[in-house]
């Protein structure tokens, strides 16, 4: 079976060790085995030429012991039930690592969204909400953007939900345009948070940004904001890649003009997606995406998709540390090899939690009607994320375990407590 097919098994293979270390009871082990629900729908879309296409879509709700489910919606040709379930599992862990009152969910549609016109894409986005209207809601399950879904798409989805409900429900979705109740700072939050985690770790090591080189796989929303803010903080970004290729400059790249260049065409033509690539850059060396993963840098940032580092390419990794902005970019077996090579991994459930923290703040603002400034949001993001990251780092260093294990322990402990607090097991025990 390919690694893609067994994503959930691969993700869960890390759990037995965590359960044993925490000595959790069987209730928790059972509840972690599978998502509570996976909803599947066929989403019909009237195409611009009058024909009808039907796209498969999913919403997986892994667990809601700590609060309503929370998780993004992905549009991608490779989406399937296994991927969506796995992403909902990681969302559950992530929300608990950073102590948010949410469970985990994820949604997806199997589609090549870049082949659709803007109107077809809007009809698909609205169709997704019509298909899953009954199972989501501001107190039940709150979606957000993920790969190939963005602020524009969240706006259409929030509008569709409100149309069906016959009143405005801004708290149904986060990552909306600010004009519809979206939070200041949400678009940059994942990249900003990842930088905060990296800086908290680097401070402990006495490492200075000016002396650190970084390569970024995945120059999309999360990767771009990370790279832009890291450059502003003094780090040297030496390489960037996207789905079409990679660029490299030992003296350092400036992410901002590269992003602007990549998106100029999109804005001019009112497109939802950017069809250009970092490869359009001249005056820089071009390289393959695989070669970027093998660069000798202080930090390799993985901000594209799952399974970027597997047993096939882990031996080529020469970075001192990996910052996981993507969900699940390193397989469980590759993780073991990285540990043997003493490569530090700052794990996804911590490193990319900035997005869901600001989504939580957006949800609070929507529910209270009290809207906050970007500087206040960024301050709250830093307080919550760095505070929880420091707890993980202390635990890892105190117990001599890696950061992923420390983050998983922090998360599972909290979920287990919620399960135990709401359960009935003690009524059935003999003592
Ligand atoms: P995005 O679609 O904006 O960007 C993804 C980028 O990865 C694109 O530039 C794409 O071209 C590139 N890419 C795809 N395959 C690649 C490959 N083989 N090599 C190099 N680049 C490749 O998506 P995003 O929102 O930036 O999300 C990226 C990752 O971060 C995903 O795993 C997502 O689940 C995770 N994440 C995102 C958020 C968020 O708020 N956006 C929050 C948490 C986690």
Please state roughly what percent of the residues sit in beta strands, choosing from under 5%, 5-15%, 15-25%, 25-35%, 35-45% or over 45%. Answer: 15-25%
Strand order of the largest sheet: 9-8-7-6-10-11-12
Rg (C-alpha, Å)? 21 Å
Structural class based on helices, strands and sheet pairing = alpha/beta
Number of helices: 16
The ordered string of helix (H) and strand (E) elements is HHHEEEHEHEHHEHEEHEHEEHEHHHHH
Largest sheet: 7 strands, mixed
List the helices and strands and how they pair.
Elements: H1 7-12, H2 15-22, H3 26-32, E1 37-46, E2 52-63, E3 69-76, H4 81-97, E4 103-110, H5 118-132, E5 141-145, H6 151-165, H7 186-205, E6 213-217, H8 221-232, E7 236-242, E8 245-248, H9 255-268, E9 285-287, H10 289-293, E10 299-302, E11 321-324, H11 332-340, E12 344-346, H12 348-351, H13 354-368, H14 374-399, H15 403-422, H16 425-428
Parallel strand pairs: 3-4, 3-5, 6-7, 6-10, 10-11, 11-12
Antiparallel strand pairs: 1-2, 2-4, 7-8, 8-9
Helix pairs in contact: 2-15, 4-15, 5-6, 7-8, 7-13, 7-14, 13-14, 14-15
The chain binds nicotinamide-adenine-dinucleotide.
């Amino acid at each position: 079976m390919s690694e893609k097919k067994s994503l959930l098994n691969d993700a869960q293979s890390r759990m037995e060790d965590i359960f044993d270390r925490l000595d959790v009871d069987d209730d928790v082990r059972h509840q972690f085995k599978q998502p509570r629900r996976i909803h599947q729908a066929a989403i019909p879309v009237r195409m611009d030429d009058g024909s009808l296409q039907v796209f498969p879509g999913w919403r997986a709700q892994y667990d809601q012991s700590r609060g309503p489910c929370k998780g993004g919606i992905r549009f991608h040709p490779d989406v399937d039930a296994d991927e969506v379930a796995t992403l909902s599992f990681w969302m559950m862990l992530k929300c608990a690592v950073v102590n948010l009152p949410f469970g985990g969910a994820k949604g997806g549609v199997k589609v090549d969204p870049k082949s659709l016109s803007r109107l077809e894409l809007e009809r698909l986005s609205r169709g997704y909400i019509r298909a899953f209207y009954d199972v989501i809601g501001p107190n039940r399950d709150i979606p957000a953007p993920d790969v190939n879904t963005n602020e524009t798409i969240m706006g259409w989805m929030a509008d569709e939900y409100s149309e069906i409900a016959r009143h405005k429900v801004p708290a149904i979705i986060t990552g909306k345009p600010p004009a519809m109740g979206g939070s200041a700072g949400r678009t940059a939050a994942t990249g900003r948070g990842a930088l905060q985690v990296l800086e908290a770790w680097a401070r402990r090591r006495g490492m200075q940004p000016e002396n650190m080189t970084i390569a970024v796989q995945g120059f999309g929303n999360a990767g771009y904001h990370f790279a832009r803010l890291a450059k502003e903080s003094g780090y040297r970004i030496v390489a960037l890649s996207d789905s079409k290729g990679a660029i490299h400059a030992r003296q350092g790249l400036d992410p901002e003009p590269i992003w602007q260049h990549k998106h100029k065409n999109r804005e001019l033509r009112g497109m939802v997606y950017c069809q250009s690539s970092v490869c359009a850059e001249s005056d820089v060396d071009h390289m393959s995406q695989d070669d970027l993963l093998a660069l000798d840098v202080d930090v390799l940032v993985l901000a594209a998709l799952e399974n970027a580092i597997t047993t096939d390419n882990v031996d080529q990794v020469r970075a001192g540390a990996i910052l996981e902005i993507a969900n699940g970019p390193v397989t469980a077996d590759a993780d073991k090899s990285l540990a043997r090579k003493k490569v530090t991994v700052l794990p996804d459930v911590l490193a990319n939690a900035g997005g869901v923290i600001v989504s939580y703040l957006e949800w609070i603002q929507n529910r209270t009607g009290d809207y906050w400034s970007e500087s206040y949001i960024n301050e709250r993001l830093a307080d919550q994320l760095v505070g929880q990251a420091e707890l993980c780092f202390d635990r890892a260093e105190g117990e001599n375990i890696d950061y992923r294990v420390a983050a998983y322990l922090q998360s599972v402990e909290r979920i287990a407590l919620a399960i135990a607090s709401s359960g009935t097991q003690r009524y059935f025990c003999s003592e």
